[in-house]
Amino acid sequence: MRRKLAINRLRERGDLSGELVTQFVDKYRSPIIEGQNATFLFRGDADEVFVRHRVVGLPDPLPMKQLAGTDLWAATCDLPAGSRVEYQLETRRGEHYERFNDPLNPRVAHSPMGSSSVCAGEGYHVPSWALPDPEARPGELTDHRIRSKALRRDQGMLIYTPARFNRVLRYPLLVVHDGPEYVQFAAMKTVLDNLIHRLDIAPMIVAFVPPGDRLREYPNYAPHARFMARELLPDLESRYPLMESPVSRCLMGSSFGGVASVSTAYRYPGVFGSLLIQSASLVFTDIGQDHGGGPYFDPVVKFVNRYRAKPTRFTDRMYMSCGIYEPLITPNRSMVSVFREAGITVKYEENRDGHNWDNWRDRLQSALTWLYPGPQKYVYE
């Protein structure tokens, strides 16, 4: 017989004292994970309380209900095994609304926009290869700056060289859009150190490149593509012992950075033979021009619509991933077949997560081991 949820067992207790509620909250904290159910809790005085999230398929805001005679609020939703959800709570007191992280949940994820609470379903855990490993020899991050005529500015970046870097050898090159954010919020240096140490991936040179105005430069912007292909690549080739084949050169990015990776490789076909794109904002329209994404998506939609009308093979292989809880899941699913029909080898993966940095971190092992498996040093020549 299926066991009742903890919050329902509490409701059935009848007259709930403050002490009983305190004991319940101290025992379970928030959220309570029971099979494929997640129960969010909040304790305090308010006119209304909501769970705020960006999970496609769940009401947003998700209203919480107050247990009669108490200051405890609760809301229960489905949460399939392996799921990971970021959320905040919102209270209304009169006309005043306030949003904040769950005070009963110590688990927090960070991003350039701030932090959010994390709800992890049964079976989800942070991958071991994303955590610091004292046995893994660390690679080195160094600052690098070049003058870009295309972008009309000095462009800084971080360059990763692997442990035991040897100029006698040649290395694949990975260029990462929103690079410093991948280092800070997706633990990507730690991931590289660990995967190289474990011989899961080949040692590689990685350029972590930040944008200027990303909403202008990332959606199919010719000067950005020219910088990547005609300025950054030759500069790195002159400084580091890189493999010469296009398939050994990979562009990477998430969200708008995924669009920048695709559009750059499209503008310079055959230069970057590999792509790694995560939750790419490849929004398009089949009928009309109303895409619902706002003006920043106009150049994206124009580019993707044009490509869908006439697909071409501009790269050899592409790793794509997307969370099924994010609105971009539909366009990403649709583009897989378009790329494959153009002759591009695509590995596509979905997971129960949303549009966030931990999701993109959790896919790095699968992506990098497929693109550059170790220890076959010269397989990409």
UniProtKB/TrEMBL annotation:
Q: Which InterPro entries match?
A: AB_hydrolase_fold, Esterase-like, Ig-like_fold, Ig_E-set, Mycobacterial_A85_antigen
Pfam families cross-referenced by the UniProt entry: Esterase
* Entry protein name: Esterase
